[in-house]
Amino acid sequence: MEDSIQKVPENQPKKWEGKASAELATSRAEQVWPLLEDFFGLNKWFPTLTTCLPVHGVSGEPGCVRYCAGFKTPVNSGDKVVNWTKQKLLSIDPENLIFSYSIIDGNVGFNSYVSTVQVVPKEEGCKIERWYEVEPVEGWNPEDLDHFIGSGLQTMAQRMEAAIHGGSEGGNLK
Q1: Residues 132, 115: contact at Cβ < 8 Å?
Q2: Which residues are registered as beta bridge partners of 67?
Q3: What percentage of the chain has pLDDT greater than the value 90?
Q4: Residues 32-41 pLDDT 10s
Q5: Using CA atoms, how far apart are residues 22 and 16, in angstroms rounded to an integer?
């Protein structure tokens, strides 16, 4: 009798997993959440992302899909290739300020990529936390991906704080 449990082949690489966080010292979670909840508005905050367009559905509803293009990565920063991905919102929980999405298509080699983003209230300000997992990416190492996600999140947090408090980056949310 055969064992019905499928085993992962020993030679198959384990998924990379990582976490990044960014502190927003002067912005409350309820100010930051609407900026992240706008699934089709990522280009307002993510560095070098020039395009974020709706492909399917309504922004902020599970199943909606966005097309993101123009971002630079550590492995092709000098290339003329336009990086792009299509990302699907898997779940969203406005009460707990958390959502998850996956990359469903793209040219950057992120296969089986899933990320969860949460805004965590603090006594003063808040924190954005982002977890991810992805199959190993050709031409990258885990440290490249950690840096890409971590530095991107730091820039997003800075732009969001500037926008919330009337600065010039990322728009004005007065």
Answers
A1: yes
A2: 53, 86
A3: 70
A4: 999 999 999 9
A5: 20
